[in-house]
Amino acid sequence: TEDIPLYIETFGSIETTERKFSFPVTVDTPLTTFEDIKTMHKELTEAGIGKLNFRLVGFANGGMYPTVPYKLKWMDVLGGADGFTDLVQYASENNVGIYPDFDFAYVTYSEFGDGMNLRKYAVKTIDDRYTSRRMYDAATQTLTSDFALCISPSAYEHFYDKFSANYSKYNPVGISVSTLGTDLNSDFDEDEPYNREDSKGFTVEILERINEDYASVMVDGGNAY
Question: How many CB atoms neighbour CB 171 within 10 A?
Fold first, then answer.
């Protein structure tokens, strides 16, 4: 019915290998562009489907394997900053929900100037090692890692302050903050240790700030913190 919203998750860009002059080179390959989202909305609307919302995963800061949200650079192969600006304008005129996804709890890639200092901001284990996200694999009945390093919950504000200043320039309505709604990671850093209750406090604080800054907030799953 008209009251039921449809949420569609779209994927931005991923690195692939192409051959140029017989040499293999790494290039950013678009999976879904900003223009593609407009096209999907138009075709679904013509088919009689309303209340459309799009979650944009991998559209900034490196694509599907991004840097931590600190600076903000929309992927050029997807339309760049101008493409996102046009999409926001289109969404406003056509009542479409746009939720670019940014993960503050984990990071898969780091580069110069991204604000990430592993010694200061990465979660430490009891034996002083960096730790990564683990997920249960039902097929092997073991925990597997996707090599996404855990970010200390005490660092959320550090990254969000810089990121929000950049993101707010586009006058967005929505934002997706993925794992902030599901994961609580303790940090056994010798100088600044935090347990899961501490992590809950940091997470609630940053979610409250995000909720104040944007009209609509999406998470992977909502826990009652």
Answer: 10
